[in-house]
Amino acid sequence: MVLLQGNFACEMKVKANSPFSGAGEGAIIDGEMAEPDVQIITSGGLRIPAHSSVLASASPVLGSIIEGPQKHRSSEGNIPILGVPCDAVSVFMQFLYSSKCSEEQMENYGIHLLALSHVYLVPLLKRRCTRGLAERLTIENVVDILQLARLCDAPDLYLRCMKLLSNNFKAIEQTEGWKFLQSHDPLLELQILQFMDEAESRKKRTRRQRQEQGLYLELSEAMDCLEHICTEGCMSVGPYDMDPSKNTSPCSKFSTCHGLQLLIKHFAACKKRVNGGCLRCKRMWQLLRLHSSICDSPDECKVPLCRQFKLKVQQDRRGEDARWRLLVRKVVSAKTIYSLTLPKWKREEEPRTTQNHHEIRSFK
After folding, report:
1. d(C-alpha 185, C-alpha 169), whole Å
2. CA-based nearest residue to 351, from 243, 257, 224
3. Are 231 and 242 spatial neighbours (Cβ–Cβ below 8 Å)?
4. Partners of 39 in beta bridges
5. Cβ atoms 234, 261 nearer than 8 A
6. What's residue 355's pLDDT?
7. Could you say which of 106, 136, 166 is where a domain stops?
8. Which residue positions does the secretion signal occupy (predicted)?
9. Could you tell me the CA-to-CA distances from 236 to 36, 262, 353 in Å, in that order?
10. Facing residues of 361 across strands?
11. Helix (H, G, I), strand (E, B) or coil at 49
């Protein structure tokens, strides 16, 4: 009696959401609906009448069942779709006719519809289910949906599940789904742990690369400030033939520029640098060398020792070592990448500003 009531309830829902309401052109003859010529049999014994032409055009698998040998259907034209609730089969049939699926239907039968769309090769429904399930991922259902995504070859959904697992693993490992996975699918558990380990390694590499990029950008900014100080002066430091006191206002890169000015003052007055015993002087010496490696016009450059460093490199047959050349490339690359992130008007303004600086210097 209970089974009969369940079948009756399913049948009422099928009638309420009849697939014929959105029947395709293949089910219409002379402007009228053709008679159904096949029946879909669900696990609960429910029979859903359908048109073979519509099913064959929407699903190549159903088309091969209809047109092929009758081993998958009886002589009466019955096609079994088993293993999922009868309501899910009803929604699936409705989609084959109308290509529509409501949010409520996706909420209730999304998992079953994804399995049906994969088995019967309905790509439009599969994409709809992939997006819908991705939007409804939770800590409680992510393990189940991950297993289904792997079985149904849904890589986008699989990756979304993996990321959610990786970011919320402490909470997910307490769920029943994870405990069941550990007991019944150790291979998938291993894949998840490997993904988490690789994700953590990628985060560490990204952090390290950002730190390195920040260091190279700071060196690039220091090169700009060094040329700025030695060309036109800034605050209390400037060329020997210019009064730096005229430039009393700080420049736009005050933090770097001020630190470099202090380093220059120390370099000029330190007595230990002759014997190479001062770390701060060594740092200044490296900055001057780095500027020389980057500078394209050493004969006109106002930065001290720029031309001398260039000549030394040319005279030395070995030239600069590989690590130093790599540092130079990284600094130049960091400056280029940073300039590309600036707004267009600011990128255009910087070359004009540099040109104006050289023009002012030439008039003096």
Report:
1. 17
2. 224
3. no
4. 49, 78
5. yes
6. 40
7. 136
8. none
9. 93, 10, 21
10. none
11. strand
* Dihedral sign of CA atoms 133, 139, 144, 149 in order: positive
State which residues form the domain around 23: 1-136
Parallel, antiparallel, or unpaired: how do β-strands 32-33 and 28-29 relate?
antiparallel
Whole-angstrom Cα Rg for the chain: 36
DSSP three-state, residue 29: strand
Contact 180, 146 (CB under 8 A): no
Give CA angle at 255 (251, 261), nearest 5°. 80
196, 191, 189: which is closest to 168 by C-alpha?
196
| Dist CA 342 CA 180 (whole Å) | 51
In total, how many domains does the chain have? 2
Start-to-end CA span in the chain (Å): 106
Q: Which residues of the chain, if any, have pLDDT below 50? A: 1-9, 12, 14-17, 25-26, 29-31, 345, 347, 351-364
Q: Specify whether the backbone of 206 is left (phi greater than 0), alpha (psi in -120 to 50) or beta.
A: alpha
- CA dist 111 and 154 (Å) reads 12
CATH number at residue 54: 3.30.710.10
* Identity of the amino acid at 7: N
C-alpha distances out from residue 247 to 210, 228, 230, 237, Å: 35, 12, 13, 9
Which of 115, 101, 167 has the alpha carbon at shortest distance from 137?
167
